[in-house]
Amino acid sequence: DDDFYAFRCNINELERRLASVIVQAFDDSTTVLGCFKLFDSFEGLLEREIILSDLEKKNTDLLNAYAEDLKAVQEIFILGKDDPPIADNAPPHAGAVTWCRGLVERVEDPMNRLKGVGKAVLESEEGKEIVRAHSAIMASLRDFEVQHVDNWCLEQESTGTEKLKQNLLRREEDQEHPYLRVNFDPALVCLLREVKYFTMLKIEVPDSAMQIYAKNETYRQQTGNLDLIVNIYNSMLATLLDVEQPLLQAKLDDIDKFLQKGLKHLNWKSHAINEFVQSTMTKVKEANTILQTIKSNVKETQVVLKQFTDQLMIDRNNTKTYTIEQFQDMLKKTIAARYTVVQKGGGGIHEHL
Q1: For residues 80 and 75, what is the distance between their CA atoms, to the nearest angstrom?
Q2: Where in the chain does DSSP place strands (E)?
Q3: Could you please report the per-residue DSSP string of 175-196?
Q4: Rounded distance, CA 13 to CA 263, Å?
Q5: pTM value?
Q6: Cα angle vertex 9, ends 7, 10, to 5°?
Q7: Which of 65, 108, 185, 225 could form a disulfide with 163 if both were Cys (CB 3.0 to 4.6 A apart)?
């Protein structure tokens, strides 16, 4: 019995020390959720009588800290609800809902933990006041989420179908060159991103938006290929010289004629988009290859011509006097050497023509 009594005394002392450590860590915690994570670290020991009696004294402090957190969340919501902070890669409505969900999580997790502490904690006067404040904040946050989802649903009904009826391409007629642009409306890009993020948030999306999103990968590939075509075409217009234009005019006229399908006839609902993209890509790449070959040949020809001027026609020693025969012999050798260089360079130029 004496040994068991000594054992019990040692255990009680250890429990008092452990309770002191937990209480000190509780006082050092800066957030309510941090306090509950602290409790999770000592799960299984908190029900021991000595530790439990010390922690029950901290229930009021825990409720006060949670009340302050609720007040902070309410202030953040009131200040940010009209212009919520949204991540750079998030669309407007889904980004706002994500921000709202973050506040919900900050409010809801501690409340669920408090319910697990015991009914007595929330049935006190402070607890009842906190429950009322929690319910009011949660109602505001849910209304905010529902409002943004409903607003987006109304917007996409008038956006999606109409924007898909636009032609694939458009021209910038007011510029120096009639550059092409891919006519995939930014509103459609936003719609596709909204659906993606709402789906990740497990929010129900209207069928009309899901039907458009079902072709998301198709639109991505089509716009990517059209961007490539447009960039090559615009680059040709920007770099084409007046002396080069007659050499490519027939190709350019053929491309412009073919582009009329994308400018006036085909839209994003058409079934012949892939065929148009493939044919246009072939024509544009072929014309660009010719243009780049012309420019390359001209540059190489200029290099060859520059070699003709690198050496003098005759290199005479100014301090030496030449007889007529010596001068004629030197001139013949120089002309022969230069003729060889010109003949070789001329052959190279001929290959470029």
Answers
A1: 8
A2: 169-172, 179-182
A3: SSS-EEEE---HHHHHHHHHHH
A4: 85
A5: 0.70
A6: 65
A7: 185
Cβ contact 141:100 at 8 Å: yes
Look at residues 280, 229, 259 and name the one whose alpha carbon lies nearest to residue 167: 259
Residue 55, CA distances (Å) to 280, 286, 338, 349 in order? 75, 80, 103, 94
Angstrom distance (rounded) from CA 334 to CA 314: 6
Return the closest-CA partner of residue 129 out of 70, 74, 75: 70
d(CA 20, CA 30): 18
| Interacting residues of 70 by C-beta distance below 8 A, sequence separation 6+ | 107, 130, 133, 134, 137
- Pairwise CA distance, residues 105 & 127, whole Å: 19
Q: Is the pLDDT of residue 172 over 90?
A: no
pLDDT confidence tier of residue 94, bands split at 50, 70 and 90: very high
Question: Which residues have CB under 8 Å from 291's CB, separation 6+?
Answer: 236, 239, 240, 244, 248
Q: Which of 260, 264, 292, 262 is nearest to 277 (CA)?
A: 262
The confidence score (pLDDT) of residue 329 equals 81
**Mean pLDDT of all residues in 63-90:** 86
Scanning the structure block, which residue is given the tokens 């068991």? 4
d(CA 67, CA 131): 10
CA–CA separation, 279 and 265 (whole Å): 16
Window from 28-37, 70-79, 118-127 with minimum mean pLDDT: 28-37
Q: Extract the tokens encoding 198.
A: 């709402």
